[in-house]
Amino acid sequence: MSDSSLRVVWVYPDLLSTYGDQGNVLVVERRARQRGLSVERVDVRSDQPVPTSGDIYLVGGGEDRPQRLAAERLRRDGGLSRAASNGAIIFSVCAGYQILGHEFVNDLGAREPGLGLLDVTTVRGEGARCVGDVLADIDPHLGLPQLTGFENHQGVTHLGPTARPFARTVFGNGNGTGDGTEGAYNDTVFGTYMHGPVMARNPQIADLMLKLALDVNALPPTDDRWYEALRAERIAAASQPA
Amino acid sequence: MSGHPGNPEPLSPRAKLAVTAGKAAAAVSRAAGRGSGSVIGGRVALKLDPDLLGRLAQHLDVVLVSATNGKTTTTRLIAEALRASGPVVSNALGANMPAGITSALAGGSDAKYGVIEVDEKYLAGVARDTTPKAIALLNLSRDQLDRAAETRMLAEKWREGLNGSKAVVIANADDPLIVWAASSSPNVVWVAVGQEWKDDAWSCPSCGGVLQRPGDDWFCGECGFRRPAPSWALSGDHVLDPHGSAWPIRLQLPGRANKANAATSAAVAAVFGVPPQVALERMYQVQAVAGRYDVVTFQDRQLRLLLAKNPAGWLETFSLIDQPPTPVILSVNARGADGTDTSWLWDVDYGRLAGHPIMVIGDRRLDLAVRLEVAGVDFRVCETLDEAVAMAPPGQIELIANYTAFQDVRRRVGN
């Protein structure tokens, strides 16, 4: 942590905030404050430089054209890549996840370079768009309970050797590769297709980001009864599709 | 224009048969208890005569109304205003796709005007089929994330569909996506009626640059696309007309968004020679629109029924509810017609409800509970509407619900 308060950076709300993923910022912020931390939230519009001194960076989902614009501007700016090499924690969703990889297919049908912060490559899926509730088991190394979320994407994301699957699907598509993987991560950079927002449905992911940023093994407990009630409902709903 | 109300060109035998068959199907549907029958009736009629919509519209001066929010209400306000000048046929209940529109028009053989609400996805096609005299475009924003087209793509489709249209387009100068959609049209009347929700228009619809938004103005620093100079405007409780006269808006409908709808409606009425004063006076008649804004007595409390389907709609609704300590009931479902992804709840600033006693109901009350918990406002989760109402003291309650949740509430309170 750079100084007395935790800096949470919300990357490009003007382009990558279409699917409610702003909720991840709100959940991280709330859970940090509940632990007595002071939090500085920094919203960075796409005509502003991305600060390199943040502790946690959150990148959300967006539509196809804004996704291309975001990739262009993040490459040109370089701030997010510099923050990553400083060891900042980065958590990304859907279009944001694709941008953090090596490349994806843009709205014009062309291959668009990403930032290469995650060893993944995204192509456009041939089949139907993946839309609906997802249930998955998170990589046991991370010590987190089951993942519940809502996916809505056409991309198929292939993992390279230095990316680990974030989760294995029980229901739903995840990366869309047919091998049951969902999302990807390395030591400090995470990507998932899960909306919901994913941290509202899985607050322990927010806590994991806080622990990594603060370099601690545990955080004081919080009253999570409404999160738990929502999780139970969504896990049951995904297990018995209508 | 093609409307000759005094001397209508008769419908062809095939069109007449189609109208009759459609009415019969609607009657059967109603008798079977399947709603008003308007959509099934229209479907049967369109199958028998695919050009029927165009043929029915031929005899009318047609006004089309489309938007993400406010189209049902604005359709109603325009219809009331134009009744000053002749009989109106309208799809007043919000059946806004081609079958529902066809069915509504088939029921108004002696009308002079057809005032038609059109679903956003169908606007270009309906505009082609009905040769409208005026088209009102109010706003575009995110809605039904799991299946809707991108808002900018929708604006682009409107733009292509309206290119070369002979209609007068009455369009909101304060919504960049609407301006992009309308500006391919040769004959636009710009109305400045505001838009509280700005988060779908930070990117220039033309070049993708970041829009600058100082005060009420907006422009793209890169390509020069900018807010056009409006000829009509909403200014507080008044409509300013192109001559600079200010006309007071008196409505029974609450809220800033409805004043905006009234200002747009006055500009539409002027296209047909109805003066703003006359138009606005007639709009005062409108009390509730398909149950929306209605105040119903239920369990000795007065519930005001408010519909909000997407973040922009919730934002406008928060600005019209009574101050704390008026209790608020929120109800959210995620059935097919609502969109099945509830993530949009996180784009709505529920912190604005701080100070109100809040009860949450609906299929997705637990999503609301987590949303409110993170917003740091107090709330109670209830199983049913009855339970939520019983939590509030006798008096007024504001009830805000999304689409199917709103229908559930109407059924329960007998509205």
Automatic annotation (TrEMBL), chain A:
Pfam families registered for this protein in UniProt: GATase_3
Domain of life: Bacteria
UniProt: substrate binding residues: 129
Listed Gene3D superfamilies: 3.40.50.880
PROSITE patterns: GATASE_COBBQ (PS51274)
HAMAP family per UniProt: Lipid_II_synth_GatD (MF_02213)
Protein name per Swiss-Prot or TrEMBL: Lipid II isoglutaminyl synthase (glutamine-hydrolyzing) subunit GatD
Organism encoding this protein: Streptomyces hydrogenans
UniProtKB/TrEMBL annotation, chain B:
InterPro entries assigned to the protein according to its UniProt record, in alphabetical order: Lipid_II_synth_MurT (IPR043703), Mur-like_cat_sf (IPR036565), Mur_ligase_cen (IPR013221), MurT_C (IPR013564)
Mur ligase central domain residues: 68-269
Record has Phosphoprotein as a keyword: no
Reaction(s) catalysed by this chain's protein: beta-D-GlcNAc-(1->4)-Mur2Ac(oyl-L-Ala-gamma-D-Glu-L-Lys-D-Ala-D-Ala)-di-trans,octa-cis-undecaprenyl diphosphate + L-glutamine + ATP + H2O = beta-D-GlcNAc-(1->4)-Mur2Ac(oyl-L-Ala-D-isoglutaminyl-L-Lys-D-Ala-D-Ala)-di-trans,octa-cis-undecaprenyl diphosphate + L-glutamate + ADP + phosphate + H(+); beta-D-GlcNAc-(1->4)-Mur2Ac(oyl-L-Ala-gamma-D-Glu-L-Lys-D-Ala-D-Ala)-di-trans,octa-cis-undecaprenyl diphosphate + ATP = beta-D-GlcNAc-(1->4)-Mur2Ac(oyl-L-Ala-gamma-D-O-P-Glu-L-Lys-D-Ala-D-Ala)-di-trans,octa-cis-undecaprenyl diphosphate + ADP; beta-D-GlcNAc-(1->4)-Mur2Ac(oyl-L-Ala-gamma-D-O-P-Glu-L-Lys-D-Ala-D-Ala)-di-trans,octa-cis-undecaprenyl diphosphate + NH4(+) = beta-D-GlcNAc-(1->4)-Mur2Ac(oyl-L-Ala-D-isoglutaminyl-L-Lys-D-Ala-D-Ala)-di-trans,octa-cis-undecaprenyl diphosphate + phosphate + H(+)
Residues of the Lipid II isoglutaminyl synthase (glutamine-hydrolyzing) subunit MurT C-terminal domain: 307-405
One Gene Ontology MF term: ligase activity
Pathway note: Cell wall biogenesis; peptidoglycan biosynthesis
Keyword Cell membrane attributed: no
Binding of Zn(2+), residues: 204, 207, 220, 223
UniProt superkingdom: Bacteria
Active site: 341
Assigned EC number: 6.3.5.13
Annotated keywords: ATP-binding, Cell shape, Cell wall biogenesis/degradation, Ligase, Metal-binding, Nucleotide-binding, Peptidoglycan synthesis, Zinc
Membrane-crossing residue ranges in chain numbering: none
Biological function: The lipid II isoglutaminyl synthase complex catalyzes the formation of alpha-D-isoglutamine in the cell wall lipid II stem peptide. The MurT subunit catalyzes the ATP-dependent amidation of D-glutamate residue of lipid II, converting it to an isoglutamine residue.
Subunit comment: Forms a heterodimer with GatD.
Annotated family: Belongs to the MurCDEF family. MurT subfamily.
Name the UniProt record assigns to this protein: Lipid II isoglutaminyl synthase (glutamine-hydrolyzing) subunit MurT
Origin species: Streptomyces hydrogenans
Gene: murT
